[in-house]
Amino acid sequence: MAAPQADAAVHSMAAPQADAAWDDFVAAHPDATPFHSRAWCEAVAAATGHRLEPILSRDAAGRVRGLLPLHHIRSRLFGDALVSSGFAVGGGMLAQDAAAAELLADSAADVARARGVPAVELRGGPVPDGEGWRAEEGVYAGFARDLADGDDAELLAIPRKQRAEVRKALASDLTVTTGRGEEERRDHYRIYATSVRNLGTPVFPRALFDAVLDAFGEDADILTVRRGGRAVASVLSLYWRGTVMPYWGGGLAEARGLRANELMYFALMRHARARGCTRFDFGRSKVGTGPFAYKKNWGFAPQPLTYARWLAPGQAARDTNPTSAKYRMQVALWKKLPLWAANRIGPAIARGLG
């Protein structure tokens, strides 16, 4: 489909110049995700220091035809890349037509060349077919489905074995709280940091979680499962166009035996319905991993995700996969770190993952 104006142009501009056009375009586009929003993109930039470089494609009349929010991720360990969007599972090119998408892709490559950045990474959206671009498939899958009308119907939507675990969790003495205040934030970060340390990966800076919560306002919150008042599992979720997205979640070692995660996600479904949500997006997982199998156990069908990458001539792709063989020794050592040490060192490393 051709652009409505032949003399289209692409402009990369500072966020203050693009604010209104950016917001209006995201609000009107049916495929927009929270990771295209200024709320997400500016929160990531503020919390991590990674430069935000939004690209808007406009037609000759000045109307926005496409958006590509890029973060310039810089890391001595993992290398440099322009990423759309930073720390997101989505946020690739958002365009009205193929011509606008082509302009965005070309402009992203131009910005990379001008900055001396060896790669551009797009998470979702159309895959460019220009020189240097390639699709990346078979690594991740997404999991989403509609919410049922109530608790009974929601239970029936869960396969029998997992349903039994949820029923046991519902009958336990665990309690659930939701909120956005300091106590919820502190407990969530402690649990999340412990969970990722146990998996052998560095934790993101707490400033990132706080910035996202502050930017999204009532469209983000934390749900925490407690035993005797003590937090044992917690998840930070985003709410976007009737969909709840549990985004950063985890549990302490004891959470598994307590079935705290089972209660957490079922309680989140209930909480989301009360907020008017009709869909549950369980997020992405790497194919063949434990989280991939866990989400299938809940009755979610995996949907393959296709990402795209541009590489400058002679450059190799960044490897930020913690399951990569090259990081096997580091992962094993990280699992043994005291939590205080992991929390002190981890954020500086995790900033480079983007």
The largest pleated sheet is described as: 8 strands, mixed
- The arrangement of helices and strands along the chain is EHHEEEEHEEEHHEHHEEEHHEHEEHH
Distance between the termini: 33 Å
CATH architecture of the largest domain: 3-Layer(aba) Sandwich
Multimer state = single chain
* Low-pLDDT windows of residues: 1-7
Give the CATH class of the largest domain: Alpha Beta
What is the mean pLDDT? 91
Q: How much strand content do the residues show?
A: 25-35%
Query: What spatial form do the alpha-carbon principal axes imply?
Result: globular
How many helices? The count is 12
Tell me the structural class.
alpha+beta
Rg value: 21 Å
Characterise this structure.
Mean pLDDT is 91; it is low at 1-7. 38% of the residues lie in helices and 26% in strands. The strands form two sheets. Strands 1, 2, 3, 4, 5, 6, 7 and 15 form an eight-stranded mixed beta sheet that branches. A seven-stranded mixed beta sheet has the order 9-10-11-12-13-8-14, with helices on both faces. The longest helix has 18 residues, at 98-115. With 354 residues, the protein is α+β, with helices and mostly antiparallel strands. It starts with 8 loop residues before the first strand and ends with a helix. Helix 2 runs antiparallel to helix 7 and helix 5 packs across helix 9. Pfam families: Acetyltransf_6.
